[in-house]
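User: ok so my PI wants both of these folded by tonight, can you help

Assistant: No problem, let's get them done. Here's the first:
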Amino acid sequence: MGSLYTAAASYLDARAHGGRWLLRIEDLDRPREVAGAAERILRALEMFGFEWDGPVVHQCDRSEQYDEALRSLRDRNLTFACCCSRLQLEDEQRYPGTCRSRTILAGTPAATRLRIEPGHVSFEDRIQGVFRQEVSAAVGDIILKRRDQIFAYVLAVVVDDAAQGVTHIVRGADLLDNTPRQMVLQRLLGLPQLRYAHVPVLTEPDDSKLAKSRRSVQLRADSPLPQLLSIFSLLGLAPPDSLHFASIAEIWRWAIGQWDLRYIPVGLNLRVSA
C-alpha cells in the first residue's frame, strides 16, 4: 500500500500539471535483486491504470554514465578512497573522515566517498515546507561507490534525474533527509536543481512502519478499484460514492481534476486506521 500511495501522489501531481510521468527501475544492487521483481512492478502499475511516458529506464544499464560523473568529481579532487567497513563505523553517528588523508594500498577493497565541506543546504519542500541540513554534520563524507563497486543510490538518481529532464519529484518523506545530499551533488556536477514534495510515510496506528504482512495490496485484477479509491482518500481527496461503479480510467480522470498538494497532511508520517 505504501508504494502504491507514493506512486499515485507522484502520478497525480505530474498529470494535474500537464507533466510527463517517468518510470525508472532502480536495480543497482544486482546481487540482492529478487528475480522477476521488475516485471511484477510493471504489471501492478498497469493493473492500477498507471501510464508512463517514454521507455522504462533500468539503472543497471547506466554504469557508464555514473562512471563519467564519478570521474568528473575525482578529477577535481572532490572524492577519496575509503577502506572502512560497516563494522568499523557502526558506533559512529556520522562518517568521521577516517580515510580523508590516508593512502590506500593498491588492491585494497575501497569505497569512493565525496568530500562534504561544512555548510548548510536548504530548500522549500512543496509539502513539508523549509528543510535545512548541515550535510557534513549529519552524515559526513557520503559514499558514491561502495566497496563492492556498486554505485550508490545518491549518485545514480542525481545523474538519471538530469539525463531524463526531471523537474519535479514527489516521493516519500523517508527520503527527505537524503535530498540535501542530492542537492550537493547536483551543484558539484553542474546539474539543475529540482522541486521536491515529500508525502508522509504510511504507518500502522501505533506509528510503526507499515507492515506488508498486515496491509499488503492484493494484486488481483478484479479488485484494483476499491484499493485505488482508498489511496485517493489517504491523499486528501474525497471520492464520491458514484466512483465505486466507475472504471479505473474514470476515477483517475476525477482524481487528476481534484488534485491539490495542499490536501496532503504536513508531517513525516500518516497513520493508517485499522
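One down. Here's the second:
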Amino acid sequence: MRTSILSVGEVTVYVKRLMDRDEVLADLIVRGEISNFRRPASGHMYFSLKDDRSLLHAVCFRGHAAKLGFDPEDGMQVVAGGNITVYERQGRYQLITRFMRPDGVGALAAAFEKLKAKLEAEGLFAEDRKRPLPRFPRAIALVTSGTGAAVRDMVSILGSRYPLARIKLIPTLVQGEGSAQSIVNSLRTANGAEVDLIILGRGGGSLEDLWSFNEEAVAREVFASRVPVISAVGHETDYALTDFAADARAATPSHAAEMAVPDAEELLSSLAGLRYRASSRLRMLLRESGLRLQAARAHPLLERPRLLVDNKAQQLDDLRKSLIANARRLSRLWQARLDTIAARLAGLDPQAVLRRGYSIVRRADDDSLVTSIGAVAAGDQLAIAVTDGEIAAEVRGATAGG
C-alpha cells in the first residue's frame, strides 16, 4: 500500500483530531510541579507541569485563571484538570487547564492562609459588618448539595423545630470541577429569591474536598450577599474562608439549622409560662385591690361622711374668726400710724406757724420769700402774710440783727 505524502500541517491536524476525540484526554486530572510559569498582560497563564519522568505544557485562559483562588508559581505542586489538545501553530500538545488547586495539605494550607490574609486586610471578615440573624425567618434558602446527609439533616431539623419557615432548596455542586462557580451562582439565585436567611453548607471532608469554599470568588460572593448567611462547611474542627466572610458560622449543617430557627416547642413552653405568670399576677392584683376596697369601705368617713363635712365646717369657722381678728388688729395698727403721720403733717402746716404769731414776708413784685435784709431795699413793696390775710407794706429801711 502506497503511503500518502502529508504536509506538516495535515499531520498536526490529524493528530489534533485524534486527541480531541479521545475520551481520556477530553477530561483528565494531572498532578505535577509548575515550571516556566508566566502570566502576560492578556491574563492567560502559561506554564509546564513536570515530574521526575516528563514535562507537559499547559495553558489556563483568563476566564478560568481568574477563578483559581490562589496564585500559582514555579515549584508549586498542583492538581490541574482539563483536556489535552494540540496547539497547531507549534505542533505541541498541551493541557487546557480549566481548574487547578495546590496539591497536598501543606500547600493547600499555605494557599488558604495567604488568601485569608488578603481578604482579611480588605475587611471582608470584619465583625462590625456582620448582621444579626432574623429571629423568626419566614423563608430559608439551603445552598448545598441536593443529595446527601447534610441536606436531609437540615430539612429535618428545620421542619421539626420551626415548621412555619418555608424551605427553598437550591441544589449546588459542593466539590470538584465547577463547584466554586456553582456555589457563586446558587448564592446569587438565593439573593434573588424572597428569603430571609441563607444556609451555605456541606458535610465534612478533607481540605481538598472543602476547597471550593476557600475559593476567592465564593468568599467574595458570601460577603456581597444582601441576605444574612450562615456558613456550615465540614465538621466542627474544619474552617473555610466562607466561615469568616459569612454573618455567622456553624460547626455543622445540623448546627446551622438549629441556629437558624427557634424551637417551636420551647416557644410554646415559654408562652405557657408567660400566660401562667400573667394570670398569677392578675389574680394577685385583684386580691390586693379587693383588700384595699374592703379597707376603704370600713373607714369611718365612708360610713359617716357627715363627720368630714362637720370637721371641715368647724375648721372654716376657726379660719373666719382668725381672719376677723387679724383684720381688726391690722386696722388698729394702721390707724395709729395714720395719727402719727397726721400729727407730723400738722406740725409742718404753714398756717399753724402763722397762728403762733409768725408771718411770711414776700416781695410784691415777684412773690419771692424775703429771708434776709439783703433781699430788700428802701421803697420795695412787700406782702406780709398773717393768719387771717395779707398786709401791704413798703420798706423804709432795714437794720441788721445783733
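Residues 279 and 303 are 34 Å apart (CA to CA). The chain has five domains: 8-102, 113-262, 265-298, 302-345, 352-394. Good luck tonight!
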